[in-house]
């Protein structure tokens, strides 16, 4: 009875309170952008299909969704803005620069691999940046990630050949199995606890079924597990029948959605994700996939974005039909699979919905495990205090702060939470020549917070935010999953 | 009372596998003044608290002053009289101790931010509005106090200044209305100091600009020139004088201009209202409260008169929340906490609680817009017992572990009675 209004009715809910305008980080630093109320619910009244777009200031919306988060009446402002930009693009075409930077998977493919050192070198030459700045319109100071010689998928394939991963052999993780059985006899109290929890969980619907989904894949071939060494501290999860680590013949499968950045620039993030999931006894599958399409959406190229999303749906459908969850480390990718693509692109088929319903941000998934008493607690203590910035795109999932919830289980680890709304970069926004300065100004409160923390390391889930933070502050950044893998004492770096 | 009942629940066992961060003692729904007060009060009592809300609360539309009751002299005494006469009124339900506790909490949160609230519940203050009328209130920020009617009456000539670029704030109108009330007011428009901004001077943007020393110095010099010319002792400016350092800004302006400066609240968005919300949010975060905005509570479930779970809308699926206690602070009709269903019935929006309304739909509105008794519809709200637990139409307790606070409560009309903030902090502060 209290659902936020659907996209097409959203603008009628606006009470013109301007709360969104006061919160919009772009309107705060630039007068090229008159603010969410103006370009969103207000200007929408003047936009008609087939008529020229009245005002293109909406292009300065970064898509951070801060406005949605604070609007007291649930106007889907950021989505209205995304559609308005697409209307401009449909009318005037995609500028070459935007066409290019929106194709993150293509750029990744061209830069990562054996040619990576050369690409990195050339892209960092002053003349290249100068040309890109003046001819293409990519700001010459914008942060550029380093392409890797070994992509994430190459590593997965190698691992499969070597038989070191879980990909083929599943988790016949025998050692873990016995460990669990022992625990089972020890911990009767816990089991009763869990029975209570079990009843609670029944309400949970999809959440529950995902956590307990038994493997319905063909039985994996058997090779002894070598992925993760058994750890000294006994894990505190219960030997609940539904637990993936329980002594079932084979592990629950789970699909990992790596996104473009992990594939080409940050394979270690994917490796950490795999290590943590396998540590929980999951068989991690990395099926073919392409860009989630968010850069295309935010550059208004809806035609290509639809293609990208439907291709992903095709790739992943077989898995989600079997009830296998899809988890991702990139909060923007998972948000796109869950909501952005269906809602903004108007894709509502049953298949699209099925994929959305099965997609989780990795920490959201781990928090569900924790709530069900199935998250391992064999952490080594980490006496550290680290600043953490929750990306605006993570807040757009509207699920609180799963990273904080999970990481604060690590003994000794203290997170100081960034008060900032947005780092400014918003995917491809902050690398554009005309928007770089805005993006840096938007991020200023965050950069100050990180500098003042005195830490040499900051945590953030989104890749472009990490690059922006490191670019602006010089402080190293990690994905929280890397920290979690370290806390579990898992080795995940490519050797 | 139901505290002891809860103590017997298996919380101890639960704590063993306790999800340090995922189990809450209390979940507060709503991020207005009432919700923020409740979150702070409960965190201060050692509870683990989550504050869940659709978006920012109604603080951002309000004046940023604390209205206790529209009474000519002594609000506290008037509240006692009101409580004696109307035993169902929220003030009567919670008693004076909760009001004092709530006010203290709010004042201390604001003081910590260097933004003291001054005044007392025993005195009615009157401050000019953006229309130049005098509005009764009780506690006001230090940045407004020089505009209090008694001070205005005692002082010399008065200047009301603003910027043409700031919409909805008209110094000539304010000055003219003040003059008709006997105050020697003149008005002027100031020149906007140069900055990278050419247009769109919202209250928020101006507040950011005033935090820059060069910007406010420029304004201060203009004011100084006006003071030299007109001999003004006090200057009223729109309440946009900084978001985080308002007191510093006002002091700097006073020093240079040689006049006392006071802020006049603007139409929404209200910067003084945001300062209150920020102060309480900051205090809540420091006390360990988790704040989650953008989350619409869509339904709840429970058994045996206990609310156990609520669900909030999220990307792709609903998020589930558990807690032992719940505080519903979703606001009244204006705050969006009460809505009319298509069939005509009023409903509370988060949990679908029945709404107590004194009238039939055809009597919701008085024929006169400014009828002194107000419109009956604005009396609508959730009926509660003396512990603020919600009642159904038959007067039965619906949930023993839910408290209703703030403008969602029945038996009062916070705007007309001039008690919006008082009800919010008093009921928010009340212990369950
Ligand atoms: S916050 Fe929401 S209701 Fe208020 S002006 Fe913005 S869109 Fe409209
Ligand atoms: S999405 Fe972000 S940049 Fe765009 S209008 Fe909303 S708050 Fe402003």
TrEMBL record, chain A:
Membrane-spanning ranges: none
Q: Which UniProt keywords apply?
A: 4Fe-4S, Iron, Iron-sulfur, Metal-binding, Repeat
Q: Which residues form the 4Fe-4S ferredoxin-type domain?
A: 3-35, 50-81
Stretches of Pro residues bias are at 221-237
Q: Which domain of life is it from?
A: Bacteria
Q: Which GO terms describe its molecular function?
A: 4 iron, 4 sulfur cluster binding; metal ion binding; oxidoreductase activity
- One Pfam family this sequence matches: Fer4_8
Q: What is this protein called?
A: Anaerobic glycerol-3-phosphate dehydrogenase subunit C
């Amino acid at each position: 009875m209290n659902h936020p209004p659907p996209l097409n009715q959203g603008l009628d809910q606006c009470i013109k309170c301007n709360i969104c305008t006061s919160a919009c980080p772009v309107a705060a630093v630039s007068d090229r952008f008159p603010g969410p109320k103006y370009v969103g619910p207000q200007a929408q009244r003047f936009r008609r299909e087939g008529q020229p777009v009245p005002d293109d200031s909406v292009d300065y919306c970064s898509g951070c969704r801060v406005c949605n988060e604070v609007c007291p009446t649930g106007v889907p402002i950021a989505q209205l803005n995304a559609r308005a930009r697409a209307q401009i693009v449909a009318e005037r075409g995609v500028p070459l620069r935007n066409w290019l930077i929106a194709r993150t998977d293509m750029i990744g493919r061209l830069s990562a691999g054996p040619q990576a050192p050369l690409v990195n070198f050339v892209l960092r030459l002053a003349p290249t940046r100068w040309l890109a700045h003046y001819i293409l319109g990519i700001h010459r100071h914008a942060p550029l990630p380093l392409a890797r010689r070994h992509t994430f998928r190459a590593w997965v394939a190698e691992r499969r050949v070597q038989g070191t991963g879980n990909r083929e052999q599943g988790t016949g993780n025998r050692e873990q199995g016995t460990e669990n059985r022992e625990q089972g006899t020890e911990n009767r109290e816990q089991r009763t606890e869990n029975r209570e929890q079990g009843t609670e969980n029944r309400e949970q619907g999809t959440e529950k079924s995902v956590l307990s989904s038994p493997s319905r894949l063909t039985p994996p071939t058997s090779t002894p597990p070598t992925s993760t060494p058994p750890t000294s501290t006994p894990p505190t999860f219960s030997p609940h029948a539904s637990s993936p680590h329980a002594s079932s013949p084979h592990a629950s499968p789970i699909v990992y959605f790596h996104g473009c950045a992990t594939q080409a620039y940050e394979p270690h993030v994917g490796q950490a994700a795999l290590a943590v999931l396998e540590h929980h006894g999951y068989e991690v599958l990395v099926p073919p996939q392409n860009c989630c399409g968010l850069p295309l959406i935010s550059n208004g190229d809806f035609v290509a974005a639809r293609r990208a999303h439907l291709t992903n749906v095709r790739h992943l459908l077989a898995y989600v039909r079997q009830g296998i969850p899809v988890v991702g480390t990139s909060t923007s990718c998972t948000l796109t699979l869950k909501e952005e693509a269906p809602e903004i692109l108007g894709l509502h088929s049953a298949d699209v919905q099925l994929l959305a319903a099965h997609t989780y941000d990795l920490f959201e998934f781990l928090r569900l495990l924790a709530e069900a008493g199935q998250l391992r607690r064999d952490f080594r203590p980490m006496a550290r205090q680290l600043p953490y910035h929750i990306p605006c795109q993570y807040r757009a999932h509207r699920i609180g702060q799963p990273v904080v919830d999970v990481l604060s289980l690590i003994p000794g680890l203290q997170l100081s939470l960034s008060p900032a709304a947005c780092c400014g970069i918003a995917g491809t926004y902050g690398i554009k020549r005309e928007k770089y300065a805005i993006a840096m100004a938007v991020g200023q409160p965050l950069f100050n917070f990180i500098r003042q923390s005195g830490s040499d390391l900051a945590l953030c889930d989104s890749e472009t935010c990490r690059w922006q933070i490191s670019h602006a502050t010089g402080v190293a950044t990690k994905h929280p999953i890397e920290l979690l893998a370290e806390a579990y004492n898992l080795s995940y770096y490519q050797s | 009372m139901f505290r002891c009942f809860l103590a017997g629940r298996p919380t101890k066992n639960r704590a063993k596998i306790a999800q340090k961060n995922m189990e809450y003692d209390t979940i507060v729904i709503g991020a207005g003044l009432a919700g923020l007060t409740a979150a702070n009060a409960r965190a201060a009592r050692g509870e683990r608290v989550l504050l869940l809300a659709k978006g920012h609360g109604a603080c951002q539309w309000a004046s940023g002053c604390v209205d206790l009751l529209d009474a000519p002299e002594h609000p506290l005494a008037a509240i006692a009289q009101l409580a004696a006469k109307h035993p169902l009124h929220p003030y009567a339900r919670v008693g004076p101790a909760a009001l004092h506790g709530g006010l203290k909490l709010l004042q201390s949160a604001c003081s910590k931010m260097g933004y003291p609230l001054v005044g007392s519940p025993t005195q009615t203050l009157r401050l000019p509005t953006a229309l130049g009328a005098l509005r009764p209130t009780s506690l006001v920020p230090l940045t407004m106090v020089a505009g209090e009617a008694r001070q205005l009456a005692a002082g010399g000539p008065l200047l009301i200044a603003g910027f043409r670029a700031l919409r909805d704030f008209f110094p000539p109108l304010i000055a003219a209305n003040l003059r008709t009330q006997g105050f020697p007011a003149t008005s002027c428009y100031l020149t906007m100091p140069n900055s990278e901004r050419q247009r769109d001077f919202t209250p928020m943007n101006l507040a950011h600009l005033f935090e820059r020393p060069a910007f406010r110095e420029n304004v201060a010099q203009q004011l100084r020139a006006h003071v030299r010319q007109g001999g003004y002792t006090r200057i009223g400016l729109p309440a946009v004088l900084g978001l985080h350092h308002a007191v510093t800004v006002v002091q700097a302006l006073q020093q240079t201009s040689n006049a006392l400066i006071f802020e006049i609240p603007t139409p929404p968005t209200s910067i003084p209202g945001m300062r209150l919300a920020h102060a309480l949010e900051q205090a809540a975060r420091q006390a360990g409260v988790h704040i989650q905005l953008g989350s619409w509570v869509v339904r709840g479930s429970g058994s045996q008169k206990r609310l156990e779970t609520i669900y909030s809308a999220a990307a792709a699926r609903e998020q589930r929340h558990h807690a032992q206690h719940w505080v519903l602070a979703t606001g009244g009709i204006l705050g969006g906490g009460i809505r009319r269903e298509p069939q005509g019935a009023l409903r509370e929006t988060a949990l679908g609680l029945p709404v107590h309304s004194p009238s039939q739909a055809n009597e919701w509105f008085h024929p006169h817009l400014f009828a002194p008794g107000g419109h009956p519809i604005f009396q609508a709200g959730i009926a509660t017992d003396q512990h603020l637990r919600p009642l159904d139409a038959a007067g039965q307790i619906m949930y023993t572990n839910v408290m209703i606070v703030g403008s969602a409560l029945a038996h009062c009309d916070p705007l007309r009675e001039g008690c919006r903030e008082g009800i919010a902090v008093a009921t928010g502060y009340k212990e369950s």
